[in-house]
Amino acid sequence: MTVRLAHVGIAVRSIVDARIFYEEVLGLEVESVEEIESEGVKVALLPFPGGEIELLEPLREDSPVGRFLDKHGEGLHHLSFEVPDVQRSILAGIEHGVETVGDAPRKGAEGREIAFFHPLFTHGVLIEVCSKRNAAVDEAASGS
Ligand code: ZN
Predict the structure, then answer these.
(1) Which of 6, 55, 95, 141 could form a disulfide with 44 if both were Cys (CB 3.0 to 4.6 A apart)?
(2) What is the pTM of this model?
(3) 46 and 21 in contact (C-beta within 8 Å)?
């Protein structure tokens, strides 16, 4: 079973402000910015070998990321691991009394299937599991 770190999610008030550090100081580049209306969030992806930084800016104050910012301020929001089978991870969680946050699985950026495990059951860090990028999305992106 291959598991890899997909991305590190960071809650920010403004992607326009936050990207300056990651681009100008770290030398990463924003590859895409996508609004996920159902989650009330705008997502900027900055890839690097072995993973990505995912900047999360709330579209509304009453969204999950909006409420996170209210409570904690900017900072580490979640770690995302790419797993072979999101559904199987959810079932393994159920088997061990680990609860998910919201609907699971649901649709994330890049056509991925995602699920979140509540930090209460994961020793304090919100953990996302995601499927590989949707192949159809890759094809559309490469124009083939
Ligand atoms: Zn994520």
Answers:
(1) 55
(2) 0.86
(3) no
